[in-house]
Design brief:
By secondary structure, this protein is α/β, with parallel strands linked by helices. It folds into three domains: 86 residues, Arc Repressor Mutant, subunit A (Orthogonal Bundle); 104 residues, Periplasmic binding protein-like II (D-Maltodextrin-Binding Protein, domain 2); 96 residues, D-Maltodextrin-Binding Protein, domain 2 (3-Layer(aba) Sandwich). The strands form four sheets. A five-stranded mixed β-sheet has the order 4-3-5-13-6, sandwiched between helices. Strands 8-12-7-11 form a four-stranded mixed β-sheet. Strand 9, helix 7 and strand 10 form a beta-alpha-beta unit. The termini are far apart.
Amino acid sequence: MAGALNLKQIDAFRWVMISGSTSQAAATLHISQPAVSRLIHNFEEQVDYQLFIRRGGRLHPTPEAEALYRGIERVYPGLTHLSNLMQNIALTDSGLIRIIATMPMVQRLVPEALKVFHEQMPQIQLSVKTIVKRELREWLDGQQFDIGLATLPVDYPAANIMPLASLNCVCVLPPGHRLSEAPVITAGDLANESFISIIPDTVLRRRVDQVFDEMGVERQLMIETQSGAAICDMVAAGLGVSIVEVFTASAFADKGVILKPFRPAITLQFGMLLPVQRPQSHAVETLIEALRDRAKGFEESFRNF
């Protein structure tokens, strides 16, 4: 047999064998009858023997064609799977885009960027894994992801780091709070408030602690949790106030949580991490652009915070 297998030729041959005519095969494959005849002719040249004899206005398969058809039917499911796999690989390098993201990034940034991306490339599969920052090193060492999203700084050499956004944290208040009309909240304003805090050993906790220490203000720390979303749920329930990053806080505005600028400003940097050992496919580049555009939108919306 000369040359490589041609799946279009195999499809044409298979459907002529099933239907007994080139016209029926053409209708099934949504191509013209001359196109089917041309594929069969090229397939005969490829296998180097005659496949059909025309007799009485109909095509009759040769014994060689019968034997070939039986062989093709045994392997055909695998051939179609291979064809689909090759198409997926052409689109994504692996058929799947794998995203890892720390909790703040999955609140609004990731969903809104994925919505834009899905409208552009609806056939692409996506996996989103939420991690805590201490797990980043393991993921970066393994390089088993396509896009990472985290609060900066990240000092690991196994990632190309792309800054995404620089955003001030906001003070979140429950509905009807006494400070709800204040244009800006200061550390002193929160001195006698029940404060719901993110857990220690996080960038946000260290920055908040630093500001209150420098201002000489003691907080009434009532509750600690590792989740910004849990903090906002508790604020909405009237359990206290807090300071959180914008991605999470903005997702709770429709639940009655009040967002206020906080001074002195606590600014967090957010970035995208790209594995140094994995080339970027066209689909990954498209998703990167969607994330960058959405992050820029957050910077514009919260510029006055």
